[in-house]
Amino acid sequence: MVMGYSWPITNYCFPERPVMPPLKTTVACPNCRLPVPVVLEQLFDVTQDPDAKRRFLSGQFNLINCPNCRFQGQAASILVYHDADKELLLSFTPMGLGLPQAEQERAVGKLVNEVINKLPQEKRKGYLLNPKPAFTLQGMIDRIYEADGITKEMLDAQRAKAQLMQKLLTASDEQIKALVAENDAQIDETFFQILAASAQAAAAAGNEAAAQRMVDVQNKVLAHSRFGSQYRERQARVEAAVRELQALGDKLTPDRLMELILKAESDDQVAAYVSLARPLVDYAFFESLTRRIDRAAGDEKARLTQRRDLILRMTQDIDAAAKARLQETAALLRKLVEAPDLERALRESAPQIDETFLAVLNENIAAAQKAGRPEVVARLTAISDGIHRLIQESAPPEIKLVNELLDLPTDAEAEAALQARANEITPELVSTLNYLAENLRQNGRADMADRLEKLYGVALGQVMAANWKK
């Protein structure tokens, strides 16, 4: 599905009305009052930039990082949020700015004009003339959630989970056990989503210690909670289904897949089969299943019908999620293409960059080359190079060493280079080489797996020799 996707390059490289870029300025640090640089974003127009909603709700905007007193927080600023699909136009003016009413109205009016000017004539409606003011930033966030159908009760429940997360992050191991026992009913999928999002935000902000603490707490909560126990059981069933499909390899046929799906003991197993072998679950697959249902009777007919409905819902969800992910990826790539500060934009967007994004990026580089657009190729290549720099920066030492060894032309050169760096060979490197070799072989990359296995042998020999000398 990814490989078939390509949006027209001519449409996004030269927008008629570019999204209002953030403003580079300086503000007084709220703590020490010294001037600090900040990238100020005041307009969050979801209609023009779908990623704006995520940035706004995550609070990852207008961030102050004072080099003098180490204060970290948000710069106070007038904000406008717009979502044309929901006819939602909100404004917020912090009281601390102390602006006269007339000046507030002028500033908000300027931002609203930016919104209106980007809309086609047929989408300019009455709500645009009356932005709804929020008295607090949290109130503005609540209105956005309410427009999504999330009630105050649901928001209160989510805040309670966030508060529980904060308590767990500052608790000792024994206190974590007690807190989990006391609040087991609150610990569910939403709780772990909040924790994961917080860890991603911390990592994106460069706070590796906080991100690692959140991962440690997540593992402890999984170990002690009822949800964690259920999660492990589900994971075991899914992993068993994955191993079964991997063992079949090229021998997996639509008929064999149907047998596996129909014999599956849980919805989790069905989901694993369907998601991993989605191309086989096509129109012919459903026709064959329908014929089985027509031949069945009684309880078996009802069971097969229920299973078919489940498979249909799962395929629809998978396809919808894939489509939404591609749309998000397209929006992110547009944002990076148009970003005035590419390095900063890449760092802020790091949590969203995955294999899907890289596949779409490579597709567009190839399309730009074919279309004879050297300026677009240069910009997209700069994005690709920047991503690889980020990956290299954040990679553990053993991964960096493995990448360097894989870049060498021959196996002999890679082995010689590893032997020359014997002081960098650790048990962690040996484990990494073994894991990566197995993983690449399972994914059909036999050439790279062969090299890693040879390097694994060299590294293991070095570790054993070092231990023998002790």
Q: How far apart are the termini?
A: 55 Å
Q: Look at the structure and give the mean pLDDT.
A: 85
* Main sheet strand line-up: 3-6-7-8
* Helix percentage: 55-70%
What's the SSE pattern?
HEEEHEEEEHEHHHHHHHHHHHHHHHHH
Total DSSP E strands: 8
Identify the overall geometry.
globular
Strand content: 5-15%
Overall structural class, as computed from helix and strand content, comes to alpha/beta
Please, how many domains? 5
Helical stretch count?
20
Radius of gyration of CA atoms, rounded to a whole number: 27 Å
Largest sheet: 4 strands, mixed
- Unreliable spans are 1-18
Helix and strand topology:
Elements (H helix, E strand, L loop, with lengths): L8 H4 L10 E6 L6 E6 L2 E3 L5 H8 L4 E3 L6 E3 L4 E5 L4 E5 L8 H18 L13 E3 L2 H11 L4 H18 L3 H10 L6 H16 L3 H17 L1 H23 L5 H10 L3 H10 L6 H13 L2 H41 L3 H8 L5 H16 L3 H21 L2 H11 L3 H10 L6 H16 L3 H24 L1
Parallel strand pairs: 3-6, 7-8
Antiparallel strand pairs: 1-2, 4-5, 6-7
Report on the architecture of this protein.
The chain is an alpha/beta fold and 470 residues long. Helices cover 65% and strands 7% of the residues. The strands form three sheets. It has a four-stranded mixed β-sheet with strand order 3-6-7-8, with helices on both faces. Strands 1-2 form a two-stranded antiparallel sheet. Strands 4-5 form a two-stranded antiparallel sheet. α10 packs antiparallel against α11 (267-276). The radius of gyration is 27 Å and the shape is globular.
